[in-house]
Amino acid sequence: MKPRIVIPTVAPEAYQALMNLENYIATTSLTKTHKELIKIRASQINGCAFCINMHTADARKHGETEQRIYLISAWREADVYTEEEKAILALTEEVTLISNHVSEETYQNAAKLFDEKYLAEIILAIITINSWNRFAITTGLRAV
To answer: By the 8 A CB rule, do 11 and 135 touch?
Structure first.
């Protein structure tokens, strides 16, 4: 692949704005498990090898099991996720595939399981990883 634009060099203020959102997500009450499930699933859907590699490694560091990591893409058929985790994965999928919109059922299921602040943090985490996926894929970041 030919070298592509290096946004942190060319547009450091814009890159910092995205980093500020990431730094905010790091301070939220979201559990490490919830954050990594969101990051891995969105990255799988978007085909971002760089982010899948990074976030599966991060999940392992935080104690996530290999089995749960391997089953994320087939979470509906796996009995290793909690009701809350399944709601987060469903919302992650629908926000990531936004052209299909977020169904009322998926949204209301998440809304009944989480308070408004936690739900807002989930949505912002999904939006943030989708931004990073697009950043990495467009600029040609590679998994190593």
So the answer is: no
In-domain check, residue 14:
no
Q: What is the pLDDT of residues 62-114, one digit of tens each?
A: 999 999 999 999 999 999 999 999 999 999 999 999 999 999 999 999 999 99
Residue 140 is encoded by which pair of tokens? 């040609």
Residues 6+ apart with CB under 8 A from 71: 78, 80, 81
Domains identified in the chain, total number? 1
Q: Is residue 9 part of a domain?
A: no
Residue 16 CA, distance from chain mean position: 19
Other Cβ atoms closer than 10 A to 143: 11
- Interior/surface letters 112-134, b for 16+ CB within 10 angstroms, e for the rest: ebbeeebbebbbbbbbbbbebbe
Domain that holds residue 33: 28-139
d(CA 133, CA 124): 14
Does the structure show a pLDDT above 90 at 1?
A: no
CATH number (domain holding residue 77): 1.20.1290.10
User: pTM higher than 0.90, yes or no?
Assistant: yes
Let me know if residue 13 belongs to a domain: no
